[in-house]
Here is the input.
Amino acid sequence: MSLIRCQTPEVSTWGSFDRWANLRDEINSFFDGPSWSHSVAAAQLSTGWTPALDLYQTADDIIAVVELPGLRKENIELSLHDGILSISGERKEEAPEAGQAARSERSSGKFRRSISLPTRVNSEKVNASYRDGILTVTLPKAEEVKPKQIQVNVG
Here is the structure.
């Protein structure tokens, strides 16, 4: 009787890393391609920062509340087109008069937020107010999408 030695395949931990590296390279090449560089998503990712936005809905209105601390009213732009509310602007970097910042956590630069509204609105009656760093945009719903009460008649 002879002893047959079984050979075990070599296990390389680098093989799994190589697969991840290849996947990373493929994903990165997608973002470098011509179709990505001109897309809206690429434009949003390349901005300096993204303000927080909450969207509320009442029976009559859609209300967007956006945190924009430190901005001047003149540096905020709003537009409404095809059911998409866009908010853009710029927060200037504030440097102290003397010395350099030891730590800087506040975001600065240009921003752009676009959000698809859940229903049609009356663009002629949109109202925006800005107070204490909070932008509130009230967008009245179009009449045809407001809930209507229907009376039931007997007879």
In short: The first helix runs from residue 13 to 32.
